[in-house]
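Service request form, structural biology core

Requester: graduate student, group of Dr. S.
Request type: structure prediction, single chain
Budget code: on file
Notes: please return the result as structure tokens.

Sequence provided:
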Amino acid sequence: MALIVQKFGGSSVANAERVKNVAKIVCDTYKEGNDVVVVVSAQGDTTDDLISEAKVINPKAPKRELDQLLAAGEQISISLLAMAIESLGYPVISLLGWQAGFNTNSVYGSARIKNIRPNRLQAELAKRNIVVVAGFQGINRYDDITTLGRGGSDTSAVAIAAALHADKCQIFTDVEGVYTADPRKVEGAKKLKEITYDEMLELATLGAQVLNNRSVEMAKKYSIKLEVLSSLNPIPGTIVKEVAKMEKMLIRGVTNDTDVALVSILGVQDNPGVAFKVFAKLSQKQINVDIILQSFGRNSTKDIVFSVSKENGPVAVELLKELDVLDGAEIVCDTSVAKVSIVGAGMESHPGTATKMFEALYDRGINIKMISTSEIKISVIIDADEAERAVSAVHSAFIPND
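Core staff response, request fulfilled:
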């Protein structure tokens, strides 16, 4: 007998028919003699609909109240799924995040999990109940409901798997696994049988929509075996684990992230400490910076260019205008860009990888604005309206359509 954590996304429980389908999957797993904990997201577009309604009522709604509102979506899902499982004749109980023992910090809207007290989960499993848990939420030290941010249900599922020492954590989606590119947009995209934690983390961070990057970080930290598979088509998915590849380099995926803005600080005085003050200011406001480029000094000035999320671009500009060290500098934000990346272990020891990517873009007449590299990825910033063509071109160069 194994302990299996199963997570179902919003599309998997979007309507009554799909809720019943999920109930059958869960019950089939239980019938095999397994203990089962199920983590569920809000149905379909419920979260987006709630956010839209809140903006109509109060465009500057307090984040605490937004968390109170958004947590309701998962409460609906877990209740409906528990009803569906009960109708099939199996013992089940639904729990909200706080009932399942999720304790978080107090950053409303993007809380971090501090710990899970799994006593209630363990007690219900000991009764041989199927336990259905609301993903995406927890409770802070003030007894306020908090939410974990986009993709938070993935993180909830992996956190439960870690706390209970589960044998496997299955992430059910509307696709059949992890692909080398979005199969809906790129012809010839191939499903991967397995992928390493590091490769999956890069893909998730760089725009792949299959798994939340925080969930992959946690899975790696606690050595949780992840499987990404479809709730609609019962076939084997993609296993995320440590995979030994010896010294072979394979491109595992090509991603496109349009949630990008470029902030440029032009004509900065070339003095010590300027970069520190710039990025310290952004850090204080929890603005995450990705690619950074600083030019060589010329005429006692230099340029600093960096990328942030699209939402944070204009915010960053306003913050930087407050810095005295940037007096006289021009600060601009460009939100019409995208980031295209390739991911694969072993890149640094295989010359010509970057050349091959840049050649593919050159052949399509696509201009590169910025470049960033690491041991397992190469990212370029390009014009947003070129992003899909760029992904297709790069994917064809590294993963030909057989």
